[in-house]
């Protein structure tokens, strides 16, 4: 299919839901998506449309959403591709996005429109996730795989513009990119991890782009807030937990990540929502309700807009929605228990025992 204005808007809306508190700004995602549609033709193809040895590259935005000086220009996608071609001198047959999110789902679209390289419906993950290695398709477990990652971000005017080219292990290169995002003021655009289509078919969230399209269309069917939320819950098999007011938010931006917690109170219950860029877990009076990679989404009670962890504020009234991981399309990276251990360190809460 060709992504037009209507499908682009639906995908960004659906991506913002599947971001689960992260995945970047929907407003920026819409601007980039519309610009890409104006720039050229963006084809979304199925992975089965490609030969097994076709080479795919991941497009990503890495950083802390709450960082005040984050700056990325659309042209950075083309600059990153130039850098990639310098270091990886093989033909790129397709682009895959690293995750879902209001911004993340549009990663690589400008590059696709400018070069004609199609977007392949096999994102690294069908929801948003905090770390680069979680979006690396299980390549951290592939012996002798050499990661290639290029990053561009920052502002020339603020003297924090940066270009990074890195080769090495998944862990080391991902850490370098995260550090580059800090140096660039909070965010960088990244192209990384060339893989063959047959590997992506087995390890990516095949079909997640079209799932986001379906979610976005259902979300936009109604303007009434409760109906919007019900539509999302129907298409994803989710549950509206409660309507609650934010009593307190604790946010720390450090090392290229946002982390903290949100305390909320409804008419009958209190809730604790912990985040590490994305919402990681939801509790009510010490009872666990949802644990990453379950999807937790907050919707503004006034207009039904998705509210990310970086944007939720004290006094805001939101609907809390939970979608079990079984109803999501997930990549290998978030199925690896070793990669989920750091969530416990960041949140100070147990995670792995709830995944058994």
Automatic annotation (TrEMBL):
Pfam families: S-Me-THD_C (PF20906), S-Me-THD_N (PF06032). Gene3D superfamilies: CV3147-like, CV3147-like domain. Residues 174-328 form the S-Me-THD-like C-terminal domain. InterPro entries: S-Me-THD-like_C, S-Me-THD_C_sf, S-Me-THD_N, S-Me-THD_N_sf. It comes from the Bacteria. Residues 9-142 form the S-Me-THD N-terminal domain. This is DUF917 family protein. It comes from Calorimonas adulescens.
